[in-house]
Amino acid sequence: MDPNLFLIFGFVLIAALLAMTTGILIHRRQVEHEERRAELKVREAEAKAQEARYSNGDYSKIEERLRVLERIATDSNHALASQIDELRDLHAIEDRTPANEAAR
């Protein structure tokens, strides 16, 4: 056989190996990138869900109580003691409600 044929075959083989290795590395990077994007989307969805949970329930009760307390503190009405008692009664009712739901 011709020695030039072996050189050509070796060159083509090396070029094919380099091209395949490069392709594999590029594909691996793309897969890692897509996994990272998916992970970030999941984290974003979790953050939005947690934000919605706090805005809908937990903080709204605190904000409502704070508004009432601000109104009581700035109001010059003499019925301050009765309004504070109403708040205590409301707090006692809220404390008993989760206990009743847990018993069910």
Explain this structure.
With 104 residues, this protein is an all-alpha fold. Helix content is 92%, strand content 0%. The chain has two helices and no strands. The longest helix has 72 residues. The N and C termini lie far apart (89 Å).
Summarize the structure.
The protein has about 100 residues and is mainly α.
Low-confidence stretches: none
Mean pLDDT: 82
**Helix fraction bin:** over 70%
Category from helices, strands and their pairing = mainly alpha
Largest sheet: none
> Cα distance, first to last residue?
89 Å
| Shape estimate | rod-shaped
Radius of gyration: 35 Å
For this entry, give a set of tags.
single chain, 104 residues, mainly alpha
Topology:
Layout: H1 3-74, H2 80-103
